[in-house]
Amino acid sequence: MGTRRSSHTVSTLANGYVLVAGGRNDSISLNSAQLYNPSTGKWTITGSMSVIRHIHTASTLANGLVLVAGGQSGIGSYLNSAELYNPSTGTWTATRSMSIARAWHIASTLANGKVLVSGGVGTGSVNLDSAELY
């Protein structure tokens, strides 16, 4: 992979590549992302997210973009921000933020194309019972 990381996300793209985004390298949160090509077994660097984040979620959308939401940017620093990765350009674009900052949550892509984000841990290390749609 080139960069040691934990608490990152892994997403399969429509072109067969695998996107690995964010996470932590020891005590440092990351905004970097890499692509894995299963055909060649090679890793390449792609655009970095605008926000460092770990313990976030990543959801592949019907249009091929990848939605990354929430997480932490450091210990106890919860995020409500979200970004979209465009595999065609290798770039990230900020998108609408969640109403609640959360990490350790679940995100599921629904049949109607929306993403359901639920639960997790929020500011003050409080367990959340809320959900929202992207």
Would you mind describing this structure in some detail?
This protein is globular. The mean pLDDT is 95. Strand 15 (121-122) and strand 16 (126-127) form a beta hairpin. The protein contains no helices and 17 strands. 0% of the residues lie in helices and 45% in strands. The chain has one domain (9-133): Neuraminidase. With 134 residues, the protein is an all-beta fold. Strands 1-2-5-6 form a four-stranded antiparallel sheet, with no helix packed on it. InterPro entries: Gal_Oxidase_central_sf, Kelch-typ_b-propeller, Kelch_1. Keywords: Kelch repeat, Repeat.
Annotate the secondary structure layout.
Blueprint: E1 9-12, E2 18-21, E3 24-25, E4 28-29, E5 33-37, E6 42-46, E7 57-60, E8 66-69, E9 72-74, E10 77-78, E11 82-86, E12 91-95, E13 106-109, E14 115-118, E15 121-122, E16 126-127, E17 131-133
Antiparallel strand pairs: 1-2, 2-5, 3-4, 5-6, 7-8, 8-11, 9-10, 11-12, 13-14, 14-17, 15-16
